[in-house]
Write a structure and sequence with these properties.
Layout: H1 19-38, H2 55-74, H3 81-106, H4 114-117, H5 126-133, H6 151-170, H7 174-192, H8 198-209, H9 215-224, H10 226-244, H11 246-252, H12 255-274, H13 282-298, H14 308-315, H15 317-334, H16 351-408
């Protein structure tokens, strides 16, 4: 019998790799490093404009676009596309994150103690480690960010992975995504203008599920947990659909046009960073402007934005995100700075001195982070990804064996 019906025992090849996505991730990490570096030092000129916290939202946008591209390329070729999607995400994220849990548990003094202890003021229970290892820490204020520094964003990302296949199936056109985004905007506007009392909704949720949570912990949790971050991923879906359009692809290759778009979006960001919007929620406007910057970068004609250095930082950005807290802790020790609950930032004596200290901390921490992250990429991340790929190939080969037997009959 002919072998024409033989089923391949290999999974679909990796989707096309986009340099501009690496660059987006690179800039996102530099923004996060900027935020955490400037929090360490006293006031200096321009400090209020360093809104590096939105670097995480930039990561989320890049994640949504990347996963949409990946699922679109693989869903027709993978034997079990949704199951394989979850396996790939698990082996991509879990190995390094589990190592981070162990590292920050074994070496708690590598960073200032309050960086983690502030999120669990009554101490860390063993259950916190279990919930964090299972990526369920994003659903309780005291586990949200108390085991791994910055671990809250991993919780949000993994929750997004859980719902992604459903969202990808439902939001399969620009029209549908636009409707959902507009509904999110409409709700945000009503909440912003007081028509919907979001504070009372939050208060009921807090009193019913999370009583006795300190205000600072609750505010951070309710502003950044998955339901509050979903709009970022939705805008990422919209950006993905726009980037598929021939007209947008053509525009992205026009150097003059994308330069104008980039400058316009940067001006919007600067304006939104300086003052709150009185109508549409400011975070939503900021994320929309960042999506515009991603579109400007997608044609890769702005080489000063999409360059080798930034792309390399983007390729190691996951390691960078988990490593840079330890790198900052080591940097502080090198400079003889000891932060405490009473002194959470170091004043070098003046605006210029603080700015100079900020630059030194940023540069040294970036260098340490890049070196260590390159090592963890090759020792932990890549082997984890390779193991997941082998498991998927093995499952594919097992599922193909009955067809192969029939083809030989």
């Amino acid at each position: 019998m002919s072998n024409q019906n033989t089923v391949s025992t290999r999974t679909a090849p990796d989707p096309k790799h986009f340099e501009y996505i690496d660059a987006v991730r690179g800039w996102a990490f530099l923004a996060v490093l900027t935020l955490h570096s400037q929090l360490i030092v006293g006031p200096f000129l321009g400090k209020e404009l360093l809104k590096g916290g939105y670097g995480v939202q930039l990561f989320f946008l890049a994640s949504a676009i990347t996963l949409c591209n990946s699922m679109a390329a693989r869903q027709q070729k993978d034997k079990f596309p949704i199951f394989f999607f979850y396996l790939r995400r698990l082996f991509r994220i879990a190995p390094l994150f589990w190592c981070a849990i162990i590292f920050y548990w074994v070496f708690p003094n590598v960073t200032p103690s309050y960086w983690l202890s502030q999120w669990a003021p009554n101490g860390v229970h063993p259950s916190y480690f279990i919930l964090t290892a299972l990526f369920l820490h994003g659903w309780h204020p005291l586990t949200f960010n108390s085991i791994v520094p910055g671990g809250w964003s991993i919780a949000v990302e993994m929750t997004f992975y859980l719902f992604f296949p459903l969202l990808f199936r439902l939001l399969n056109s620009p029209k549908r995504v636009t409707i959902v985004v507009l509904l999110a905007v409409f709700y945000g506007v009503l909440a912003n203008t007081g028509t919907i009392h979001s504070d009372s909704i939050d208060a009921r949720l807090r009193n019913h599920f999370y009583p006795n949570i300190p205000d600072t912990i609750w505010d951070f949790f309710i502003n950044f947990w998955f339901p509050s971050s979903l709009y970022v991923f939705l805008i990422g879906f919209l950006a993905y659909h726009l980037l598929k359009r021939a007209s947008v692809k053509g525009f992205a290759k026009d150097r003059f046009g994308v330069t104008c778009l980039f400058c316009f979006c940067v001006m919007l960001l600067t304006s939104f960073f300086r003052a709150e919007s009185g109508f549409v929620p400011t975070p939503l406007l900021i994320v929309s402007a960042m999506a515009g910057i991603i579109i400007a970068m997608s044609g890769q004609v702005l080489r000063w934005l999409v360059n080798f250095f930034i792309c390399y930082i983007g390729r190691i950005s996951y390691s960078c995100y988990l490593v840079h807290f330890a790198a900052l802790g080591v940097t502080l020790r090198l400079f003889g700075i000891h932060l405490t609950n009473e002194m959470q930032s170091f004043n070098a004596g003046g605006s210029f001195s603080n700015l100079f200290l900020f630059v030194k901390i940023w540069v040294v921490a970036l260098g340490l982070t890049a070196v260590i992250s390159t090592i963890t990429l090759h020792l932990i991340e890549n082997p984890g990804i390779a193991l997941g790929r082998k498991l998927i190939d093995w499952i594919t080969s097992l599922s193909a064996r009955p067809d192969l037997t029939l083809s030989k009959a």
